[in-house]
Write the structure tokens for this entry.
Amino acid sequence: MKRPTTGRSRHSGGPNVGRPGFAWALPATVFFALFAIVPLIGVAVMSFTSWSGLGSPEFNGLDNWNKLLGDKVMMQSLWLSALLTVLGVVIQTPLSILLGVWAAGQQKNRAVLSAIYFIPLLLSSAAVSVLWRALLDPNFGIPGQLAGIFGGDGNLLGSQAGAIAVLTFVGAWQFTPLHTLLYQGAARSVPPVLYQAAEIDGAGTMRKFFSITLPQLRNTIVTSGILMVVGGLTTFDTVLILTKGGPGTDTTITPYYMYRKAFQSFDFGVGSAIALVLVVIATAISLIMVRATGYDKMNSAQEGI
Amino acid sequence: MSNTSRWLKRAVAASAVLALGVTLSACSGAGGSTANSNRPENVIHVAVYGDAGNTVEQAMVDKFNATSKVQVILDRIPGANYQQKLQTIISTDAAPDVFFNWGGGSIQPFVKANLLLPLTDMIKTDPALESSFLPSVFNAAAIDGVPYGIPMRGTQPVILFNNKQVLTDAGITAPKTWDDLLASVKVLTAKGITPIALGGADQWPTLMWFEYLFDRVAGPDLLTKAIGGDTTVWDSADGKAALTKLKTLIDAGAFGTNFDSVSFVDGGSPALLRTGKAAFELMGSWEYSTQQTADKAWTETNLGYTGFPSIADGKGDGADLVGNTNNYYSVIKATRYPDTARDFLKLMYSDEFVQAQLGIGNLPTTTTTEKFLDQAADPAYATFQFNLVKDAPAFQLSWDQAYPQSASADMKTAVSQFFTGKLDVAGFISAMQAL
């Protein structure tokens, strides 16, 4: 007769309960180091060199950085990135909270409608951009055919404001479903007992939404906010396909400008410097967001229940 | 765990995620030795721009392999971003021995990096490698007088296409002079037709207007000087006059208002011409096959074509051309079998090659082309093009290919901003001087 081995499991009590050792993190760490940290160091080094892809990179000190500092397009691109990010957050957050809370209901029609609504999420950004580019063609697309509504010549991508509006709209069309999904899950996990208690106290729908649902979604709002901000700062494919950074350089956001410098002009030094700027800015912003919202304390939303 | 170390981990993690996408591609293909002992044995690789024209290239390779000990392998590189892919591999051991290019600025960085084989010795052994081609075409792949490319495929001049039906309805004929063009624009805008279709979203179709205007007004020397480093020519009286003329055309509404969102690649501007919403389009000779694919019957009856109008008081000849002078094969220095490469290149002036290229609608620039013109896919169009090229005193390579690739993005931005009015004459001049 065999007795269950108990030797090891005995030691697993105490303060370390359920916390596996470092070995568990090893595969991910190695992967990370190889494909993230090492290339990052490579980019940092390359930002001090001049390299066209031919021959060997040559160190040129701070040349790339000086060039960037005096580059109007670069400075403009940072503002454009910020603007597109802010517009994305401001438009997508309320939409996806409302939709998510609505979709959290158990009714059949809601399940069907939200399933349909999630379809954009299944499409790649490239496909989405190609689709919208065709739909927005000024002569043969929707604006051309419905000139009465869109007015003028249907040239939606021909002005800076128009192009930014299109990018924001397409971004919202594509990513609101993802955030809706987050909010739907979060809204479903709000304990019903809270609503029941509120109903006994006589709270109406609005009151329940603002006093229970929203506060309970706080962590999700932060998660989705960070996703939106980091996603917004690194937007690339929609710009590449829809506007090519144009008209002129009017929608050349920082990641697109990096691509243009590195892969169209073969100036990998300046491209790397732009990449590094992006890394620093996005890291700083997500750290500030995590800190400012107290998300890093990882407190449960259900504390005190 | 302390708060600080958690912070640090997060910081590292966040930066790493961002850097991943950026760097994976940027870091590939550095250095690499080019000693030919590292290269494959008994084969040479020939890289070509992958498209419908590959059938002829494959046929040539098959023919060559039937008799050669060293075999040729044709690598078809899908067309989009060909230049970028080439630049990534050309300094590595995986570089093709022979590769497709556009001559001029497209190979200049490789020549500077000492990667290409000067073809002088090959031509000494076999003078027909030079003498079989039209000189203006052959010379467009010479850098500082040293030949680096053998013409292959065909020439692609930029031509002013028109919709014959629209012109007839408007009671006008294809313009012979700049003033004719301005008059036609006036008639067409009054009728509510966009005079000229322009795929402004692609930017390179916009560039074609600059290429012709500068050639007609300032003559072909201006660009040669500018590329040579004398950027003051942009600021010359001729340069300004060309820009002013172009500005007049834009302000007259010749391109409509929404050209910025129209793309040639997506089929937008060719459709404008075909459906009669526009009367003209300035485009490379491939417009013909583009229209033919879309509507064969319409193309045969309604697609008109003429050379670019002449400008009376300009320095450039009214018969000058711009466009893709030709495509070329160049050979890398590291190749293990230069003699095989030479023998393969000899096929590029064979009768069989010329006939096959004509059959698929390309226009080769050998001295023998003329006698096979009646075998072309469309003899009238082929003859028209061939005469344009033969009679042209100068054939300017498209600016984006004459300049090194590194200047191309900024040039195209300046060009499109001038058309939308964001850059004025002075602004455009300083943008070109900064290239």
